[in-house]
Amino acid sequence: MRGYLFIAGATFLWGVSAVLGRAVFTGKLELAGESLHPIDPLILSQTRTTFSLLILLLILVGRSGWQRIELPRRDLIQCFVLGMLGVAASNYFYYVAVQRTSVAIAIVVQYTAPVWVLFYVVARRQQRLTLQKVAAVAVAIAGIALTIGIIGGNTALRLDSYGFVAALLASFSFAFYNVGGHRILAHYDRWRVLVWTLTAASILWLVVNPPWKVLAAHYSPAQWAFLFVFSMISVLGSFSLYFLGLQHLEPTRAIIASCLEPVFSILLAAALLGEGVHPIQTLGIVLVLAAIVIVQLPGKIEAAPEDSVVVEPIE
């Protein structure tokens, strides 16, 4: 039970992060309006990565020295690829989707990543295509169609196409991180891998958005304080709870429990931001969550193979 409570705490913090991001993007959270530029998804992604990296380095290196995070060159390169194409891309596109659509659409579409992972492992013949998995894909696709309004003919649902594409790209990046990180996470602890993926993401953002551009935006002290607190909640606090949960639960059970994240995100957005969810969307969200659970569960006859990929959170 303790493991499930830790996972629930982590998913709640991720839900809070999604709502905070949406509140800032939509102006529902006032942060010293004298700033010349509002906070956008790029700066949110960049600062949450950089602040989290700096604090994590202080904790890990301060306690055990640099050997605590050392990696061979080959694995280091892999972490850099995962950090740029997985962590950075997924975070950025996710928050763009949150800004342009809604918390519900952004989180549900991103959480279709297990479906893309399934396509990959089946194509590589790492897993067999079973009726259970085909059903999961069909349910997920139907759920997405209902969530974004393609099925149901609800004219009240106005989908921002750019935001939907961003959510879809976030799900692809999410899937890429989990497929690519499967091998390296089997050999090194998650904190070490997280340090180097965050390092890669931070370097990428420094190139894309150099410090002088950030300073030129003249963010207020209140905005900087928000960005720091946001990074602590969305990365270090949530991942600490998630990793504690993994000490008590096997990965498959942990990832199924982490499906609470979309539930918390959607409920918090509805309660705090007034983002109502239409009945047709509710059905779609339930279908997507059901598909995620179906994909992760082992079959009745065929046990999950040792090299099967388990999708882990990347918020």
What tags apply to this protein structure?
single chain, 315 residues, mainly alpha, 13 helices
**What's the main sheet like?**
none
Q: What value does the average pLDDT take?
A: 82
Q: What would you call the structural class?
A: mainly alpha
Uncertain regions spanning at least 5 consecutive residues:
300-306
- What fraction, in percent, of the residue positions are helical? over 70%
Q: How many β strands by DSSP?
A: 0
Range of strand content: under 5%
Spatial separation of the terminal alpha carbons: 23 Å
Report the C-alpha radius of gyration, rounded. Answer: 19 Å
Q: In total, how many domains does the architecture comprise?
A: 1
| Count of separate DSSP helical elements | 13
Order of helices and strands: HHHHHHHHHHHHH
Shape: globular
Summarize this structure briefly.
This protein has 315 residues and is mostly helical. It is 72% helix and 0% strand.
